[in-house]
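Thread title: Can someone regenerate the structure for this chain?

I was given the following input by a collaborator and told the matching structure tokens would be attached. They weren't. Posting the sequence so someone can regenerate them.
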Amino acid sequence: MTGCAAPEPAGPRFLGVETALLEGDLVQFDVAVAGTDDPTVAEEYAACAAAQYALIRGQGFTRRVRVNTTQEGGTWRADAVYTISSDLPRGRATLDAAVKVADCGASGFPTV
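Best answer:
Regenerated them for you:
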């Protein structure tokens, strides 16, 4: 048939990650997700990106410093800042990068 558009895929669509080294061990991740009404999907996407970034840099841990989410036109965006370190950082929002990356993959979240 002509003129028929393919249906949108169900579930979140991960639209990409931008990464910026801020200072020392602080890294900013800007992510975008469409196809969801849940802002925590964007936050989780940022956490997955931070964990993969830590592994790429030869570090084993991340700690969330802050995450700000906004929605515009059906797309959730998260502006997240994480510390990246070789040793377990102090604080409650710490992640073992290898464990997090494995969890992200099992949950369907991209890490790059």
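DSSP finds two helices and five strands in the chain.
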